Amino acid sequence: xxxxxxxxLDVDGALGxxxxxxxxxxxxxxxxxxxxxxxxxxxxxxxxxxxQGASDVAILNFALTLEYLQSSFYTEAERMGMLRGxxxxxxxxxxxVERAHVKAFHxxxxxxxxPRPSFDFQGTTENQNAFLKTAVAFEDLSxxxxxxxxxxxxxxxxxxxxxxxxxxxxxxxxxxxYLFGVEPANRAFDQxxxxxxxxxxxxxxxxxxxxxSTERKRMPSFTG
Amino acid sequence: MEPKTRARDGEAAAGPFPLPxxxxxxxxxxxxxxxxxxxxxxxxxxxxxxxxDAAQLSQPDLRALNLILMVEYTExxxxxxxxxxxxxxxxxxxxxxxxxxxxxxxxxxxxxALGGRAEDEPSFDFGDKTGDPDxxxxxxxxxEDLAVxxxxxxxxxxxxxxxxxxxxxxxxxxxxxxxxxSIVGxxxAPDALDTPQSSDEVLDGLQQAGLRR
Lengths: 224, 213
What we know:
The complex is a heterodimer of chains A (224) and B (213). Chain A is mainly α. Chain A has nine helices and two strands. Chain B has 213 residues and is mainly alpha-helical.
């Protein structure tokens, strides 16, 4: 897997075009803002209105929570060592990607990043069938969540990054569905889900536990 | 320089729904969803495409949608020809049939959003890519990747309403890309980010893949 960095978004010049059209900053600055650098995203905002930055921060933290959920899920599944064949390989590859997404959001949010909650995956990381079923559910949900939030992002760099992750989650969804044995693309249009809808689904799993984790001690909360 | 429709931070976008300065993107989105009156947002909210207000589409939306239309024309023609030539079997045939039907819906959706401002369908010469199963699988992967890159590349150029509508399609294209790779045993999602591509890059990519004259 390639390292996640804004250079990967720079191959084609699409972002550069957008930056030039916007006429706000040099191409390099714009790309640097897309992903990476401490609080770079907030630096994109040329408006003094703090409310807009706050809105993007809330959205990015929502996405970060979903990435925490997924990265912990795949990492634990890999560590448990109960998966076989292509599912084991998929868990490894997708886990690495989800961890890279977490890191990217941390780079962008800096001290504003919410801490990782602790999880209890209720045995779904220890059984091939339960693992795949859960993976399908979470990848599909993740696609719906990004789709619901992307148009609400105020900053173009944040939007470009969210879109680049959104379609990767869709690839994961199709991959996991294929491995689970259901049609990877079963309709022409994927619909979005709102934050409350997504949160409801996540809460219904009881995967997020309230007890503080050891990770939490290493990453103090600045959520205030 | 073309007027932009996607708002820079804090600026009102000029789109099908002109709003007062200072409105936020989320407000546009909300309004687009609620009003659902024009162009592609109307098509999405209504659940079936309508062409009533294509004339209201801004220049950047028109440009982006016509690029996307070109990609959808290519996909539609590619899968239809592959099925017509009848050389696919098993999983590849299942894939082609399902995807062909979905691409047809995408094409109709984008075409309807553009209304009379839709560019004409070009002619294609796919050669053996719609006949030979291995060539088909390779070309389908290229094509779906280019579609994802095209949609992602236009995401920051278009109005929030068009973005919301396009987002319902791009993830389906990404699913197709991962599906065909799964069938042939290639990595379905090798990268952490899908790199967006500019309009020129997408058109060049189609040409290099032998999918555009």
